[in-house]
Amino acid sequence: MRPLIASIRLNHLRENFLTLKQMHGGGKMLAVVKADAYGHGAVPCAKALADLTDGYAVACIEEAIELRQAGLTLPIVLLEGVFAAEEYALVDQYRLWPVVGNAWQLASLLDFAWQKPLTVWLKMDSGMHRTGFFPHDYAAAFKALSQCPQVESIVKITHFACADEPVNGMTADQLHTFDLACAALGGDISVANSAAMMAYPQTQRGWGRAGLALYGISPMAKTDNRFKPVMRLSSQVFGERVLPAGEAIGYGASFVTTQSTRVGLVACGYADGYPRRASTGTPIAVAGERTRVLGRVSMDMMTIELHDHQHGVGSEVELWGDVVNVNEIAAAAGTIAYELLCHVKRARKIYRE
Ligand SMILES: *Cc1c(COP(=O)(O)O)cnc(C)c1O
């Protein structure tokens, strides 16, 4: 059996949740489990948090129904709302909380014959300009919803564009815009994602929406030891050879040895979600000790440097997790940890309490 394993440490997930909850001043919290819980497995992660969280957030109806069918009963927010008016029937049936972020989502919600009382998350575009009502249209949308007899409560939500940059004035500007436009409107609010909870104390109110940090990874592109990585992606060395100086390794012959080099072959490649752009020099750990990738990452395997004292064939290799932070791999590949975690494929997931 191929030795590629994604160990998912559910105890770390729970600890991270409690850390975030405390950072958020103990306020209400959604565990964001969209995109299969950032590649960690939505149902097991959601179940592991069921006694701690106040609800979940997902990207679409399909993800929400998966949680309901697994027996999860807490509130589920659809972060992008519905993609077609017909989906409101499923929102009603499964008691989901839709975000409403534009005129057609609002109009079709108001048209729908709701069977059950409904909670709506009304989105404001406070500056990110993807979705949400403009501040000057927001109160009218709020009023229309509040006049709908089946709408039981409205949560005012907005999203920050730059909360992962601790010294960027945009977050304060967005918050100010949001506060001004909903000053006269009642109900709960939700503004903070992981980065905002960590870096902008003034956003620590209402419902927190915890994503990346819940999985133990800092959105600030460096490690943050307040959080414990939930995923540990590991494999094994299954081949080794010693090459003299002057020999090229792998596709494109992009790396050439400058001295006698012990090369290990690892069962993991870009078809598993390891980024091809992370080539020579990217950190990787053999039996807990850091070394580096050599040459280009192939589809199913990759080559690494083995130090003289390191054991070769059969050694455990950590692609990312505890010794190598996934943010380091993301930096080497010119991307962000979010993308790498979501892209893990073909790895056997093993859940640990
Ligand atoms: C994904 C998402 C989040 C979670 O963001 P993190 O940076 O992962 O904490 C919060 N809010 C919205 C609207 C999202 O789409």
Précis, in short:
This protein is an alpha/beta fold and 353 residues long. It has helices at residues 10-23, 34-39, 42-48, 61-69, 88-93, 103-111, 135-146, 170-182, 194-199, 326-333, 337-342, and strands spanning 5-9, 29-32, 55-58, 76-78, 97-100, 118-123, 151-157, 188-190, 208-210, 231-243, 248-249, 255-256, 261-266, 283-286, 289-294, 302-306, 316-320, 348-352.
Could you outline the blueprint of secondary structure elements for this entry?
Layout: E1 5-9, H1 10-23, E2 29-32, H2 34-39, H3 42-48, E3 55-58, H4 61-69, E4 76-78, H5 88-93, E5 97-100, H6 103-111, E6 118-123, H7 135-146, E7 151-157, H8 170-182, E8 188-190, H9 194-199, E9 208-210, E10 231-243, E11 248-249, E12 255-256, E13 261-266, E14 283-286, E15 289-294, E16 302-306, E17 316-320, H10 326-333, H11 337-342, E18 348-352
Parallel strand pairs: 1-18, 2-3, 2-9, 3-4, 4-5, 5-6, 6-7, 7-8
Antiparallel strand pairs: 1-10, 10-13, 10-17, 11-12, 13-16, 14-15, 14-17, 15-16
Helix pairs in contact: 7-8
Bound molecules: pyridoxal-5'-phosphate.
Write up what this structure looks like.
27% of the residues lie in helices and 25% in strands. It has 11 helices and 18 strands. The protein has helices at residues 10-23, 34-39, 42-48, 61-69, 88-93, 103-111, 135-146, 170-182, 194-199, 326-333, 337-342; strands at residues 5-9, 29-32, 55-58, 76-78, 97-100, 118-123, 151-157, 188-190, 208-210, 231-243, 248-249, 255-256, 261-266, 283-286, 289-294, 302-306, 316-320, 348-352. The strands form 3 sheets. It has an 8-stranded parallel beta sheet. It has a 6-stranded antiparallel beta barrel with strand order 10-13-16-15-14-17. The protein has a two-stranded antiparallel sheet with strand order 11-12. The longest helix has 14 residues, at 10-23. It binds pyridoxal-5'-phosphate. Pyridoxal-5'-phosphate binds at residues 32, 34, 79, 159, 193-195, 209-212, 219.
